[in-house]
Amino acid sequence: MRELAQSKRQQAVWVEICESVERQQAIASRLRSGDKAWLEDFFLMLSDCLLCQFQLVRSACTQLLRIYYDGRYDSAARLAKSTQELGGLFSKMEMVEYVQNVYFSRFGENAASYRNTLAMLKTYIEQNYTSTLFDSTMVSERFHFSIGYLNRIFTMGTGSTINAYLQQLRIERAKNLLQNSDVAINSVAELSGYSNQNYFARAFKKKTGVTPSEYRLQHRIAGVEGAKGSDKT
Questions:
Q1: pLDDT tens-place string over residues 152-169
Q2: What would the pLDDT profile of 125-160 be if each residue is shown by its tens digit?
Q3: What angle do helix axes 36-47 and 92-104 make, rounded to 10 degrees?
Q4: What residues contact residue 31 under an 8 Å CB cut-off, 6+ apart?
Q5: Which residue stretches of the chain are H helix?
Q6: pLDDT exceeding 90 applies to what percent of the chain?
Q7: How far apart are CA 8 and CA 91, in angstroms?
Q8: Of 100, 98, 99, 101, the residue nearest 112 (C-alpha)
Q9: Which of 6, 145, 224, 232 could form a disulfide with 149 if both were Cys (CB 3.0 to 4.6 A apart)?
Q10: Can you tell me the distance from the alpha carbon of 28 to that of 17, in angstroms, rounded to the nearest whole number?
């Protein structure tokens, strides 16, 4: 019963954005005056009002985009682009975050927000990629966004998806272990974050063109020949 009442109160917040001209004008006024503190509180409030229908949040977020672009240069084209991007999001929180980034681009903080999120993503992946249990689902759960949304941020900043970056880190660690240790192949796989040795071998060969055993042998031979060459000199 309490949750139902809370849901109705939160729904009223989004309905007001969609239907109340007075509310829309108040938001536009705060935006024009550059009231950053008010906008921060406003979007924080919206983030806590997600116990309502997905389509209602999408409609309200679309209305917020209309308010933002109203009267701006090339507003129709920019609104159409943002609306299309909004339509590609599939969680209520993602939509609020997207509109918030649009609004705060007024203060030059949109790019900074993406850079900060990207840096946190990379740090989290680099700290955890050696765990055999670690995957993109854990990244999504840690940051409370869908993997699709996080991939868009990650790809925009690195040119690579999260899974591709994770694979790259694991293969590079495996190459280092194969070159510089006598650790058994199955242990190399596990220490690099692979729980399945066969999958590791396939992924390694796809990336390097050779199996892990062949890679180790090649570098052992190269190391011996290099040592012989230095002895002759």
A1: 778 877 888 999 999 999
A2: 999 999 999 999 999 888 877 787 788 778 877 888
A3: 170
A4: 39, 67, 68, 103, 106
A5: 2-19, 21-32, 36-47, 54-69, 75-87, 92-104, 110-128, 136-143, 147-158, 162-180, 185-191, 197-208, 212-232
A6: 57
A7: 19
A8: 101
A9: 145
A10: 11
Tokens 């030059």 locate to 108
What dihedral angle (degrees, nearest 10) is formed by the CA atoms of 160, 165, 167, 173? Answer: 140
All residues at 6 or more sequence positions from 135 whose CB lies less than 8 Å from its CB, including other chains: 166
Q: How far apart are CA 204 and CA 179, in angstroms?
A: 14
- Residue 49 CA to residue 46 CA, distance in Å, equals 5
| pLDDT digit string, tens, across residues 3-28 | 778 889 999 999 999 999 999 999 99
Q: What angle do CA 5, 93, 75 make, to 5 degrees?
A: 115
CB-CB neighbours of 146 under 10 Å: 15
Which tokens belong to 148?
Answer: 């699709």
